[in-house]
Write a structure and sequence with these properties.
422 residues; alpha+beta; ten-stranded antiparallel sheet; four-stranded parallel sheet; globular; disordered N terminus
């Protein structure tokens, strides 16, 4: 990690790398940059999608909203670190050096880290960013450190899956995949061969990973670090769909990150070189053993980061950006505890056109605050992805009594209808 000091000019500017628009950037990081007084240049390979998203966000807020007054959307092949560095260098010659290079995208962590290092700015170690994105390399690194690594086998694009040595049932997934896309539980050689053909048809040239199936309670650990101090911020317990797919159906914020699992996960993160900015880690607790499924070297998504900032009463997005500006975190974070949160995702069960769905809703009753956000517009046609792209809406329920929260969620879901037609 490059440890450059933050610039004296508080408005030196922030470079953000992004692919598709996300709530984390639109509602979290861009408003945080505005509050910090940072103009933003957003480099993306989908500029029109970002312009549309930010225009819609502003309209929903009556033409206002906390987006930066200076937001420049710059077309760029952000998957190529050389193109990213060239764009930043050209911009630097015109408007001056940036204060930081940042991304919250799974796909762009190594690119952002390399660009930050090239310009002498604080950032993540690019090797750690690559190591966590590449699931096969992640397993090798943990095994080399003598930690509780999951058994796995890497399948190159032309590899025959026979003789992999992983006991059935096991999990097949893309080596650099995200959001449970093309992740399957397979039961035998025949099913494995069929799933490999299916994934490779959609992802020509993609390497795959076959992993030991981890049966047990699924948790997350959300961390924030500055390269010196690594804070375990929070944990969620996650419910997923029945096999063979792994779709997140709901998450519950726990009162505290559980021990001793949290200490075990932190040790594994340190072995991977993770400790700068935000990180979202998923693991299974197997009889007191915290066994990592994957490490996402960015903030948790699907609106969990937004609700987490509210529940902990922390300026979470500003804190994350401040680490990239070179600022040290406090030794202790005064996070509020005791607020309970349930994130409920309404998921499509088939492909087709969304014919009926409730509008956005915000209300409070019996000590529970309900915030429902549609994620798909009525009239839209979509295939069935069997990932979080199937989400029709997200219900955020916040309070201090879990039974009341669960009752409020049940009542809301029973009172509304989501209809998909061919």
């Amino acid at each position: 990690m490059n440890e450059a000091a933050p610039p004296n000019d508080a408005c030196a500017g922030l470079i953000v790398l992004a692919r598709n628009p996300t709530d984390s950037v639109t509602e979290g990081f861009l408003p945080a940059a505005a509050r910090l007084g940072l103009p933003v240049a957003l480099l993306t390979d989908q500029p029109d999608a970002h312009r549309e998203a930010y225009g819609r966000y502003a309209r929903e807020r009556g033409g206002g909203g906390p987006l930066p007054g200076e937001l420049d959307i710059v077309p760029c092949d952000v998957l190529d670190f050389r193109a990213v560095i060239a764009r930043i260098a050209a911009r630097t010659s015109r408007v001056g050096a940036p204060a930081a290079v940042f991304t919250n995208s799974d796909h762009l962590q190594a690119q952002a880290a390399l660009a930050a290092d090239y310009f002498g700015l604080p950032g993540k170690d690019w090797q750690a960013a690559l190591r966590t994105k590449n699931k096969a390399e992640l397993r090798r690194a943990l095994a080399a450190a003598g930690l509780d690594a999951v058994r796995s086998a890497e399948l190159a694009p032309d590899d025959d899956p026979d003789g992999h040595g992983i006991p059935y049932p096991c999990v097949l997934k893309p080596r650099e995949g995200v959001a449970s896309e093309d992740v399957f539980l397979v039961a035998d050689d025949t099913e494995l061969a069929a799933r490999c053909r299916e994934i490779r048809a959609r992802r020509p040239g993609a390497a795959l990973v076959l992993e030991e199936y981890l049966d047990g309670a699924l948790y997350t650990l959300e961390t924030l670090g500055d390269g010196h101090t690594l804070h375990p911020l929070a944990s969620f317990r996650t419910d997923i769909s029945p096999p063979p797919h792994f779709i997140e159906e709901r998450l519950r914020l726990l009162p505290e990150p559980p021990r001793p699992a949290t200490d075990q996960v932190l040790a594994q993160l340190r072995a991977l070189g993770v400790g700068f900015g935000a990180c979202h880690t998923e693991y299974v607790d197997q009889g007191g053993r915290a066994r990592i499924i994957e490490v996402n070297y960015r903030a948790i998504g699907d609106q969990c980061d937004l609700v987490l900032a509210e529940a902990l009463d922390l300026p979470l997005f500003e804190l994350i950006l401040r680490t990239h500006l070179g600022e040290r975190l406090p030794r202790t974070l005064e996070a509020r505890r005791g607020v309970r949160v349930r994130m409920e995702y309404v998921c499509a069960g088939r492909d087709g056109v969304l014919k009926a769905a409730p509008d956005a809703h915000l209300g409070e009753a019996d000590g529970v605050r309900l915030d429902y956000r549609p994620l798909r517009e009525v009239g839209e046609r979509h295939p069935l992805y069997r990932t979080n792209r199937d989400f029709l809406g997200v219900l955020r329920a916040t309070g201090r009594d879990e039974e009341r929260i669960d009752a409020a969620v049940r009542e809301f879901l029973a009172a509304h209808r989501w209809e998909i037609v061919p």
